[in-house]
Structures are given as structure tokens and as C-alpha cells.
Amino acid sequence: MLAAGNRSTPDADVALEELCRTYWYPLYAYIRRQGHSREDAEDLAQSFFARFLQKNYLEKLRSEHGRFRAFLLASLKHFLANEWDRAHRQKRGGGVLPLSLDWQTADTRYQIDPPDNLTPDKLYDRAWAVTLLERVITRLRDENSASGNAALFDQLKPFLMVGRSDVPYAEAAARMATTEGAARVAVHRLRRRYRELLREEICQTLSDPAQAEEEMRALFGAFA
Amino acid sequence: MPDKCPKCSAVLPSGALEGLCPACLLRQGPETGPPPDGVPFQPPAVEEVARLFPQLEILGFIGKGGMGAVYKARQPALDRLVALKILPPQAAGGPAFAERFTREARALARLNHPNIVAVHEFGQAGDSPFFIMEYVDGLTLRQLEQAGRLSPGGALQIVPQICEALQSAHDQGIVHRDIKPENILIDKKGRVKIADFGIAKIIGGDAGSPAMTATRHALGTPHYMAPEQVEQPQTVDHRADIYSVGVVFYEMLTGQLPLGRFAPPSRKVEIDVRLDEVVLRALEREPELRYQQAGEVKTQIDTISSTPGQAGKSAKAVPELSSDRRVFARQALWSLVVGVLGCPFLNALHASEDATMTFGAFCLVLGLVFGIVSWRERLGRIVAITVMALGTVSLVLGLIFSLIFYELRFRAGEETRNRENEARMQILEHQQANRMALRGSHGTPEAGASHPAVRAIPPQQGTNVANHGRVYLVGAVRTPGPIELLADEKLTVAKAIVRAGGFTDFADRSRVRLTRKDADGKTNMETFIVNVGDVFEKGKVELDLDIRADDLISIPERLIRF
Predict the structure, then answer these.
(1) Is A117 an interface residue toward B (CB < 8 Å)?
(2) Residues of A in contact with B2 (CB under 8 A)
(3) Interface confidence (ipTM) of the complex
(4) Which of residues 271-330 of B touch A (CB under 8 A)?
(5) Running along chain B, 562 residues long, what does each successive block of 10 average in pLDDT?
(6) Is residue B246 within a helix (H) or strand (E), and if so which, with residue range?
(7) What is the distance between the alpha carbons of residues A103 and A113, in angstroms, rounded to a whole number?
(8) Does the predicted model carry a pTM greater than 0.90?
């Protein structure tokens, strides 16, 4: 949970850094889409994070109604607009350790992301959603692997994308080579766990868990 | 070419998410709600139905509900349209299903009423039970509601027809058990047709069976169910249907469900107030309090529709609010009564005047407040008016009297002043004499104790003076506290004429309170009234108290002023 918002504890710092580490790619994509070169984008993202982690930006989180996604983007815009010059001057000084982020992968990912005419904001939201889902799916896969169900997960994961009543259980049963009843149970469990994890991850970026549904809709809206 | 999601054709992120579509994933995210304990019913496809029912020409899928799926079909032999209802296969589970199904279906088939969807045939195809029923070309009440094509007036047309149909079914011992807008069809001519009679019983015959649970879940909305239907399904009788009709009626009138503490319909929409009573009685929690027959509801509604009524304002059939008001009105009356009776009572107990006044005022204000709150009750109104009238009368009287007294006092002023001067002279003389006496006979308080008859409190100007076994409170005034008297002492109290600004004060009574211990050691209190009119005279005993040792005497300061 965005208890990270409270800067007073070391735990909060760690949590915040963890959040930044998770969601930096959407920011990078946003900066690139703004028209900055790869090197500039790296510099910008890096110095933004440095400043972001250094300053207690999170105190202002409330103004974005506790949504970390919106808040991070607002902070970045603010940074790009006003603080770039200053940040540039001291970007490699300041005694701030850069976050170690995988720029190479980022650039590759940015390059191979499908070209379209998205606005930077929308691209940011999409990249955010994908990052978030990536985490959820990875966790889901890891959990299944841990219990020796990796293969099952691969078979059933497409059913995460269809409505409960539209799951072709017969097909699922055929894939699993089991009875329809067993397939129902397995699919149902997987879907339930997926929703739990999704909610959990989303709540990480919110100060109020009650906003989870709204955030989910907002992210879904980015794909509309 | 970027990959696209085959379902929603959103562009898939390359190399991420294992080929899953983020949009589709997110869409499934908010799907909350309890997981299904049973298996959701999948209506068979039209082709499959056609294969199962070779004798029918399946024309299309009409809809699906918790109780199965309905298809439009034609019986070529009879050349008529029918509705084919296929129940979920799980419904056929449980012991004795076949027997129960046959029994119930036969009973349904006997139902013959223009407002009930007729059952032509029933049976089991594959593992799914089915009914072939009269085809109704129209819309469900739900669809009409959603289309906004219902008015309160429409409800008055529809509900009596529902009641008539229910009455007819109830007469044959058949309870619908699932009356809701989805099951009420209105055909093109505006006729009501109730569908799915008794199906709930067929499906859920054995309460507690797995099929029952699943179906219950599928039924989804319990809003139309009578309370006893939820709590004790075994005890359900035809009065549960009457409750459901109440819900449907309420919803048709107001567009809302009667949930929690709901307002009577006439509070929400402009309708005849008398309808409130009908709706509310149908919605009684206890079956015994409801209408006992669906026909009664119809009769009531018909009566109301046929006689002109007063729309809008609700007067009587407003249960919860009016009962609150009634309580307030009663409180108002009680406040008034307590105030009126309590003040004299307190006075009789010799409570202080302040306390009595405060108590009285408090009661009256309380009565007024409660009266105004419950203004719409007759009782509340009466109390409020009484309090206001009392207030006005006392205000007017107070004004008149104070004017009169002002005049009197002014005139009395001259006279009294002379008299007072005289009195004061007497007091001074008296004190003088007293002092002499003290010095003479009892030089010290100890000496006083040895002569128990007299103990004096050191004389002060205007305080109290002891004289020959009598204590005179003269001219009198603030006592420094309770006056302690010894055995055989007597107390004489006189009240000086009280003056203020040249007028004689009409605070005409003074109280002397005597506290004494009786033989058992209990403390008793007595209060005596002393009148101002008893003007101080040397040696005159206005009040002769029999005072014993250890008695305490106190004089309320307020009442004796100088």
C-alpha cells in the first residue's frame, strides 16, 4: 500500500524506491514519446527519479487523490517543465546514486513496442498497465510454479481474459485432459487468484484501497 | 504487423505479458462478487435445441434467466407459436426429482387463467427438463420499466391483473414463489401474463440440495422474496406471493425497491395516499399481517381507482414517521402535565423557588418543543398551543401586575419609609439593650453554655441578637450561615420591611428552615413561613419555634434582605 507516502520511515523509502523501480518504464516511454532522444530520456528519467526520491514529493500525493500513477506522471511533467535545467546542471553530481535501471532493455522495449499515434499520456498509462499486469502474471506464474503447476498455468492463462460465463470449460477440460468439473475448479481458482493479485498490486499504488476499482477502470480506459 | 488481441483487437504489447491481452485481463479484474458455488447455466445453442426437439421448429432464442433458457418455437402440426423453456440440467438432480417434476407440472398444466402463461407440455429432453408454453408476444415488466414506459397509473392497471391470476392459482394450491418483473409479461394488448408459475418449487423442491443452492445463487436478486422465503423456505405459502406483489407494486409506483426503512410511495410520487396502505400492508414482514388473499389487494386497488381520492399529501398511512410524531406528541403532553403538577408539588416540598421556577420553565419549554415537532399530530398541536397560551397569559398578567404594583409601591414608599425609620430605631435600641444584657449576665460563650437557656451569637449590625432565651433575628439580613441554638432556646423571627430604592419590596415571605435531629438520630427538616406583614416590634414573637439542642436554623439569604 502506498504507506510509502509517509516519508518518515526508512521502510517507506524502500517501498517508494521499489515502486519507482517497478514503474519506471512508463515514465521512460512517456519521455521518449515527448520527443527526447534515447540518451536524453535516460538522463531525464534518472535525474527525475533522483530528485523524486530525494525530495519528499509524496507529501503532495494527496493532490492526485492518492493515485501513485497519476501522481508520478504529474511530478514528471512538473519536472520536465520546470526543473530540467536545474536538474541538468547537477545531474551527475549531487551525490545522488542513480537507480540502477536497465536502460538497454528499456530502449529495446520502446523500439519494439508497436508504433502508433498514442499521446504520451496514453502511452504512459498503457505502459503502466502492462507493467502492472506483467507483475501480476509473473507472480501468478511463480506461485503456480512453486506448487508445480507451471504447465497447468500455461494451459489455463488464456481463460483469464474471458468473462466467467464465457469460459469454454469443455475446451479447458480437454486441454487439461481432465473432467469438466475439475477444469471449472482450476479455472475458477486461477481467476480468483489473478483478481486478488491484481487488486493487491493496484493497491500498492493507491493510498486508499477503495479506489482500486476506479483505477482498474482507468487503466482499462487506456486501451479503449 | 503488431499482434492484435483476437477478442478485443487491442494491440498486444510485444514481448510482454506472455502474449496475453492487457485490455482483456483488466476487464476481468473488477469481476467481483462471490464465486459461483454451482455451475452457471449455459443455454444450449439453437441448433442443439432443434436437435433435441425435432417436433418443434425452433425460431430463436428469447432469453435466459436463473430458471433456464427460453426459445421461441413453432409447433408445425398445430401451427401455433410456443415458448420452449429449458431448465438447467442440474435442476434435474436430487432424489425424487422426476416424481416431483411430474406432479408439479401437472398442477401447472391445470392452471387455466387468461393472466397465466399456459403450460402445453412438459418433459425431459436429454438431462434437461423442459416446458412448452403459450407464446406471449410482448415484453416483460422489467423491460417496460427499463424503457420508461410505466407510470403509476399503469401499475393500477397491471397489479390487479397479477392479483387476479395469483388468486386463481392460489385457489388451486399453487404458489408462484418467484414473482418479479422478469416473470410478468405484458402482451401487445396490454394483458398481463404471469410466467414461470411454480418453477421455483420444481427446481428448488428440496431445500438445501446442491441444485437448490446453485439455483438460489443464480436467482440473484432476493429483493422480491418475502422474508419468510429467505429465512424459512419450508413455511412458504401463498402469502409470500402477496409480499412479492407488494414489492413489484412499490417498484412500479416509485421506481425503487422497498429496501430497509422505505418511505411510503405517496411520499415519493404523486399518487393516491390510500395506495400507501395497500402497498405497506402487502409488504408486512409477518405473513399474518399481510392481505391474506391476493384478491383482497385487487379489490382494494379497484376501489381506490374507482373512487376519487386525494393525491399527493399523505396523512395517515405513514407508519414510521407518524409513529415517531405520536411519541413526540405524547412526550409533549407529559412534559406539560409534569410541569403543571410538579411545580405545586415542589412548592409543597418547600424546594427553593429558583428550583421550582426552573423546573416549571424547563417542562413548559420541553412541552413546546415536543409539541412543535409533533405539530401534525392533534395532541402535539394542542399541547404546543396550550403552552404558548399559558406563556402569553402569564406574560400579560405579569405586565399588568407589575404596572399596578409599581404604582402601589410608589405610594407606599412615603409611608413605609417613615415606618421603617421607626423600626430601625427600635432595632438599634433593642440591640443596645441586648448588648447590655449579654455583658451583664453572660460574659463569655462558655458562660452561655453553663446557662443553657441562652447562648448568644455576637451581635452584629442587623444580624441576630439573643435576649433572655430568645433569639431575635431582627432587621434581618444575611446570616453568616446556619444559626446554632442550644437547648431551650427559642427563636423569634421577624422580617424587616425590605426596601429597595425607596419602594417597599413585596417579597413578602421569608422562610426559616429548621434542621433537627430526632431521637433516632435522623435528620429532619422543617420550614416555616414568615410573613413580611408581621412588622418587627420589640418583643413580639412572630414565630415561636420549639427548638431543641443541636437544632440548626438557617435562613435563606435571598429572602431576607435589608
Answers:
(1) no
(2) 114-115
(3) 0.71
(4) none
(5) 66 71 78 43 76 86 77 89 82 67 80 88 80 87 80 83 90 85 86 81 51 40 76 79 89 82 81 85 88 89 78 42 74 86 82 80 88 82 87 90 76 64 63 54 35 33 33 38 50 40 39 58 60 35 42 43 32
(6) helix B238-254
(7) 15
(8) no
